[in-house]
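Trying the structure run again after the queue cleared.
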Amino acid sequence: MATTIQTSLRLLSRTAPTASRAVRRTTQLSRPLLPLSTTRNRYLHTTTPRATTIGHNNETVPEQAPTTDFGRMDMLGQTPTPSTSVDVCMSDGFALNSGTKIMDGNGAMLVGGEAFVWRPWGRDMRLVNKKGQWEVPAEAFGLLGLVWPKPDLLILGLGPEIRPISPATRKAISELGVRVEILDTRNAASQFNLLATERGVDDVAAALVPIGWVEGEGAA
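Done. Tokens:
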């Protein structure tokens, strides 16, 4: 009996480690398998967008695109209007920004920031030659040869409509060293206002016939 008990104890002592190892193996196999190569989780670093400023005027740039301010796109918005700019073209004359009015059927010559009465026609009250060309004597532009500095461009307003100028008239202006742009009077006045504001009254001059001009009768 004693021999049998001792043999049983020996068998238990021999099998106990084997059972323990089996438990450890089972425990190890029950753990989730990990991939052979693991990497650390990476997170994108985000920051709240901050408004930046433009260096030359320190204006804040908004997060969203603002509506277009066309007033700020006007490059000449802060430029003063010349006193000789034309406010109104009337049938028998002109009203200038300075408050000066040239009336009674007279034309206007605007040179160097000054306004002059201009009557390029003769007693017959005609400005168109037999060929249908606008033609006046060279003396009509004599003032441009007296002023200094001499304007670079003369804007010529021919009255209610545009027509070609004669070679003689074009030559007379060219000999003064002045370029010429030909328009009807309304558009000539508008062009003069723009260019005189942009470039200055010393560079741009205008010679304007009233919009109510009638050939052989004049403007009234």
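The domain at 86-219 is CATH 3.40.1230.10 (Hypothetical Protein Mth938; Chain: A,). Worth checking whether this holds up in the mutant runs.
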